[in-house]
Design brief:
heterodimer, A: mainly alpha, MetI-like fold, two-stranded antiparallel ribbon, 73% helix, globular, B: MetI-like fold, two-stranded antiparallel sheet, MetI-like_sf (chain B), ABC-type spermidine/putrescine transport system permease subunit I (chain B)
Chain lengths: 274, 276
């Protein structure tokens, strides 16, 4: 091996890398810190660098039982749970058929479910809203749930297909050979083994629904307000505290999900994408 | 486990949902774009009007999304490259922990973070003043096209970097070691040996980001809804203010066309390389 002569002395190089990392840390955490400060600031007037006083006065306003925020939070949670139920009801059978069935043109079906990712969703969603309007679904919970479910469908179908495909068919055959009826095999062997994947897809769909903005903007307004829409209107009204508190409520599940999923995002899994 | 009939039966609900909630609205967006309501006939009228009203916004959207995609590419290659080739274990671990934070943060939240951070009296300017790089009188708000680009890059870089780091980690280390033994510098190694091998992952990550950024409504609405703005804001405006679905769908079709061109360019490039 030929010895390499570094261009820069190693101490200088380490300093430069350290500085680059520090800059990245500032870029990542700066906006988050700024939002946290606003969430707890009671008064913060220009040109003060930091809030003049901190407190929970705005939190009390947000969490007042009859306040807008509690209603939006309730709406968001109900819609997200219903979205998960709808997508699982549709995606589990589809995943089963894709993984275990004899489907003509299986690749074509998988591709079809991927299609919504290839189009800017907004242009489809505004037409969904137009169709829902004629059906009386605009401004209703079922309407919003459906527009969220279609966004989650790609992920729920693909993840459940992968989860069922990962179950060893030999185990199912063993159970069947012992005389178990087909549904019993599914209930006692296939489903429990695929459950972690199905739960992962449920969590992911929940998060998609919780964070969804554009579809709700077209379909839900003005009768169904979710947290992202509340955040949007608070921001446009210039109410930094309410907007930041709402942002914080939405941020926590996203960051927790990122930290939990870290274990699953291993290199060998990701290498297969793309 | 299931026969043909049973399989088709099982997949029918999902297919029905796709047809009703995606394919049908998609088809109706195409039809509506070419239907001229005023004259009650088919034609290109909506596109002419869209170009007259919004040509600046069409170019603005394209420039912003292309610029943001380019910046995401550079940053993601740098991050994934350091994670793969970095020699300091401490720095690699720190970077791996650091870069993922914005990954699942929703766009609407990212937009709100940036509204406070990039404002004239936001933390970025305060920090620059503290460092002596600016004075309180020379600070300016970044809540314009730059704010949109910064928000997009902040939000999308972790996603592409994650895909890339995964692909790079799965590479055969032998090629890297061979190049390293031949005396290749790390930057050469990254650009000439590693990146070409993970091009499919990089391209699909960038195309997905491009499509996503083309359809985000909250970020341009919250950061810069002044003129010129992005097509998504115009679409929402045409519908909410005028009920003008024809022009909104013409704009939507222009957005499809831009993302379609990017995807087509990528596929063609891939085919060329395969046939070469």
């Amino acid at each position: 091996m030929t010895p390499r002569r570094p261009v820069l002395p190693s101490a200088l190089r380490a300093t430069l890398t350290g500085l680059a990392l520090a800059a990245l840390a500032l870029a990542v955490f700066g906006p988050l810190t700024n939002m946290l400060l606003w969430a707890f600031a009671e008064t913060w007037y220009f040109p003060a660098k930091l809030p003049q006083s901190y407190g929970f006065a705005f939190w009390e306003r947000v969490f007042r039982p009859q306040g807008n925020a509690m209603i939006s939070l309730g709406n968001s949670l109900v819609i997200a749970v219903l979205t998960v139920v709808v997508s699982l009801l549709v995606a589990v059978p589809a995943g089963l058929a894709l993984a275990r069935g004899r489907l003509p043109g299986r690749a074509l079906f998988l591709f079809l479910f991927l299609l919504p990712q290839a189009f800017p969703a907004i242009a489809v969603q505004m037409n969904v809203a137009r169709i829902f309007y004629s059906l009386g679904l605009n401004g209703t919970f079922p309407g919003v749930v459906l527009v969220h479910a279609i966004q989650g469908l790609v992920f729920s179908v693909w993840i459940s297909a992968a989860a069922f495909a990962a179950v060893d068919p030999a185990l199912e055959e063993a159970a069947a050979n012992m005389g178990a009826p087909r549904f019993t095999v599914f209930r006692t062997v296939t489903l429990p083994l695929a459950l972690p994947g199905l739960i992962a897809s449920a969590i992911f769909v929940f998060l998609i629904s919780l964070d969804e903005f554009t579809g709700t903007f077209f379909v839900g307004v003005p009768d169904v307000t979710t947290l992202p829409l509340l955040l949007y209107s608070a921001a446009l009204e210039g109410n930094y505290q309410i907007a930041s508190i709402t942002a914080l409520i939405l941020l926590v599940p996203s960051v927790v999900f990122m930290l939990v999923i870290q274990r699953f995002l291993k290199a060998d899994v990701l290498a297969r994408i793309g | 486990m299931f026969g043909r009939k049973a399989s088709l039966l099982l997949i029918t609900p999902a297919l029905t949902m796709m047809a009703v909630l995606f394919l049908f609205p998609l088809a109706s967006s195409l039809a509506s774009a070419f239907w001229q309501d005023a004259e009650a006939r088919w034609g290109m009228g909506n596109f002419w009007r869209a170009w007259q009203f919004y040509s600046a916004d069409i170019l603005f959207s394209l420039v912003i999304v292309v610029l943001a995609t380019a910046l995401v590419a550079v940053l993601a290659v740098a991050i994934a490259g350091y994670l793969t080739l970095g020699e300091s274990r401490l720095f690699v671990a720190l970077l791996g922990w650091l870069y993922r934070w914005p990954l699942f943060i929703p766009f609407v939240v990212a937009a709100q973070l940036m509204r406070t951070f990039l404002a004239k009296n936001g933390m970025m300017n305060t920090a620059l003043v503290e460092l002596g790089l600016l004075t309180p009188f020379t600070t300016q708000s970044f809540l314009d096209w730059r704010g949109i680009v910064i928000t997009f890059v902040w939000k999308q870089t972790p996603f592409v970097a994650l895909l890339l780091a995964g692909a790079m980690a799965a590479l055969d280390r032998a090629t890297i070691e061979a190049a390293r033994n031949l005396g290749a510098k790390r930057l050469r190694l990254l650009l000439d040996v590693v990146v070409p091998q993970v091009m499919p992952s990089l391209a699909s990550g960038l195309i997905l980001s491009f499509v996503t950024m083309m359809s985000v409504l909250s970020v341009p609405m919250m950061i810069n809804a002044e003129n010129p703005t992005m097509l998504t804001v115009d679409m929402a405006w045409r519908i909410n203010a005028y009920g003008d679905y024809g022009m909104a769908n013409a704009l939507g079709l222009i957005a499809y066309a831009m993302t379609g061109l990017v995807a087509w360019g990528y596929l063609r490039q891939g085919l060329k390389e395969k046939s070469a």
